[in-house]
Amino acid sequence: MNTLLEVSNLKTWFYTRRGIVKAVNGVDFDLRQGECLCLVGESGCGKSVTALSLLRLFDSPPGKIVSGKVMFAGIDLTNCPLEQIRRVRGKDIAMVFQNAQSALNPVFTIGDQIMEQINAHGRHSRADARRKARLLLEEMNIPQAENALNMYPHQMSGGMKQRAMIAMGLSCDPAILVADEPTTAVDVTIRAQIMYILQELKTRRNMSIIFITHDLSLVREIGNRAAVIYGGRVVEIAPVETILTDPAHPYTRGLIACLPDISTDLKRLPSIPGNTPNPIDLPEGCTFHPRCRDVMDVCRSTEPALVNIAGVHKVACHLYDNAGAFIA
Ligand code: SF4
Predict the structure, then answer these.
(1) What is the pLDDT of residues 11-59, one digit of tens each?
(2) Given its phi and psi angles, is residue 90 left (phi above 0), alpha (psi -120 to 50 degrees) or beta?
(3) DSSP 111-138
(4) Residue ranges around ligand 1 (CB below 6 Å)
(5) Which site in 73, 119, 160, 268 is 20 to 30 Å from 188, CA atoms measured?
(6) Which pTM value belongs to this model?
């Protein structure tokens, strides 16, 4: 499979009055043609800022990409001219945000908002743009798509709005869709519909998807590979099956242990002790060490490198040596 996007040592920091917020602190991953790569982790671990950094969509200042590369089609998106990245946004790489309610403009109809996106990267007649917008809503399984074009966001249910957002994302036939927690604000039936739509898109359009979630059960449904993020870094990356059945990093093992299992009669779900680190004051060494049961002296002082432990399975943990062998 072709590699479409390559992210290496990406660091996005925010310079605030309280200090430097190291939201993304050395992220590495690649994305291949037609695959769904899930970025997984607890809230505050740096997933969403990683996604925003791909297209430089954060406020700058206070945010700044202080190092690293995001290579797409031979261009480094971290430092190319603004005009160049504007051509990539929406056309080659599109984003679907987690809260459709706040991402949609309440004073324009859904049709106008989708047509605006369609015309952002090429001129179409109004009739052509409207026809394309209707087809996109139909692809999203929105009933009576022609009527839905005339609706304002407040006239739509949460699920319809989220699907309209995905339609907007697809309006310029992007090669990559970045979906940031697209099912967070919808109920379980709508969640199932959105997951089905994304799976369909991947198959039908051979589209590459970066799917951001804190929910490992969704990763199982849609992902080909998963990158587990903690403290602004990828700590483990592997095919989803490997992550779920043979996790190597103690944090990933903790996340999997927290998955609900309806076959047991546990009164209380297990959890990982402690909290995600404050990005303004990250712990020395391995950022997971204050919460890790396997912590060793070296973990408190030295940041582990991301090493290959088996095939395409990589992990950043001192339990493995630089050749990827388990040492503890
Ligand atoms: Fe735990 Fe050490 Fe591995 Fe970090 S490097 S996850 S503290 S064993």
Answers:
(1) 999 999 999 999 999 999 999 999 999 999 998 899 999 999 999 999 9
(2) left
(3) HHHHHHHHHHTS---HHHHHHHHHHHHH
(4) 249-250, 286, 288-289, 292, 294-296, 299, 304, 317-319
(5) 268
(6) 0.92
Of 27, 71, 62, residue with least CA distance to 45: 27
Ligand 1 centroid–CA 212 distance in Å is 24
DSSP 306: -
216 contacts: CB under 8 Å, gap ≥ 6? 40, 244, 255, 256, 259
Report how far ligand 1's centroid is from the alpha carbon of 296 (Å): 7
Q: Can you say how many angstroms the Cα of residue 112 is from the centroid of all Cα atoms in its chain?
A: 27
291 Cα: distance to centroid of ligand 1 (angstroms): 9
CA distance 164 to 147: 13
Buried-exposed string 237-266: b where 16+ CB fall within 10 A, e elsewhere: bbbbebbbeebbbbbbebbeeeeeeeeeee
Nearest CA to ligand 1 atom 7: 289
